[in-house]
Write a structure and sequence with these properties.
The chain is α+β, with helices and mostly antiparallel strands. It folds into 2 domains: 102 residues, Immunoglobulin-like; 199 residues, Rossmann fold. The chain is 17% helix and 29% strand. It has 8 helices and 19 strands. Strands 10-9-11-12-13-14-17-18-19-16-15 form an 11-stranded mixed β-sheet, with helices on both faces. Helix 2 runs parallel beside helix 8 and helix 3 packs across helix 5. This is Alpha/beta hydrolase.
Amino acid sequence: MGKTTIVKGNVFLTTGGNFKVHSNENIENHSQKQVIQKGADKGVTHNKPKTATLTDLKITKIEGPFDENGKLMDKIGFEKFYTYKATPSRKPTEAEVKLLKWATKNDNGVIKELGGVASNNQLSNDGKIIISIAINIDCEEARVYAFYKKANESVSVNVTMIEPLIIFVCGYWNKDMPYAGDQWNEKYWGNGLGNDLKYYAKKHFNNSKQLFLNGAGNWYSQGGTRWGKGEKFASERFKNEKSKFFKEVYKDKRKILVISHSMGGAFAEGMISSLVKKGVKVNKVVHLSPADTSQFSVTLPDKTYQIDITWDPVLSYKNLDDSQTIKGMKYYGLIQNPKNDEFGHMYTKEEAFVWKAFEDLEKIELLFSRSETKYERLPSDGLGPATTIKMEVKIYDTKKLIHNTIFEKIKKDGKYYFFDKKIKKYYTQN
């Protein structure tokens, strides 16, 4: 077909029916001023062109996860890279290799595409598209998908995370003082009959893997010294690839929960400081009746909790010149000894009600209810009469408690709340 050129001052085309222009290529309108189109009845319609299909390629199978030696793994570590292989329906072009998308789904059932990873796709010698992916979602199981258009359950692979690890760090123990614990291993932490603190901690973390460390010093040891020993211990184990600690903590990339008692708190924080520097994922830290609290600090304040009990004769001595909480502690709970005896310090390492108190401290929400005036009577100091003080306080309701623990005092996000036994609510002092 030829070319038509019209050069004229004005051009008018009038028709009583439809006017159509078809082109196999472009239609261009040029004007020194405006291009005006009017539709008196239904306006002007511009159809959007259909998006061209990028590829007809499909993925028929996914395999993995494989470790660095090509071994198919039945369980994987957290934030550790493993190789996955996608089998295409035909040999892909170089461009099609880079178009392949990947996604993961964790326990909650939401498929999330992994952005920015397609450029890492590689074509292997056997015609499969391979990539290295790390699961960094907090979950027990996940699925990995490879697709061009839409993720499909039938073309995915299930992966199971390695069991989390609980590291128990004991405090002072003495064979001549059974209530303190006569050994530092598993028996330090309760009776093992399925109703102690250790059992509920394991249940809380869906855990079947535990490691027991000795964080004690002698009776007069200082927190700063034990912190240094904990930091040194973790650093030395990092250099010893044959050690059990290296395999369980550094190599396998497990999620970690640290539980300490008494003197073990300082040792644990020194260890945690080293672990964090080495990239270990420490999910939670629970300190039970920590000793010498002013001589070390919390490493992970947003993930660390402290539980104390009253009355505690051990800490009445060990923490006499120390603060009540570890430096930097944001979450603290003081509970009452339900047995009202002198063994409170022992109970915090083995009794189930102590772990349940931690679970309530972790979940509790305090909601402002009202302001009111509170009067508190102070006994005589022997030099004068008893007095009554007036306080303006704010009253709070609670929610999300699991075990209905009553705390004498709570520190939540750095703010202290006290329990009023008469009205059974928490309050803060202005």
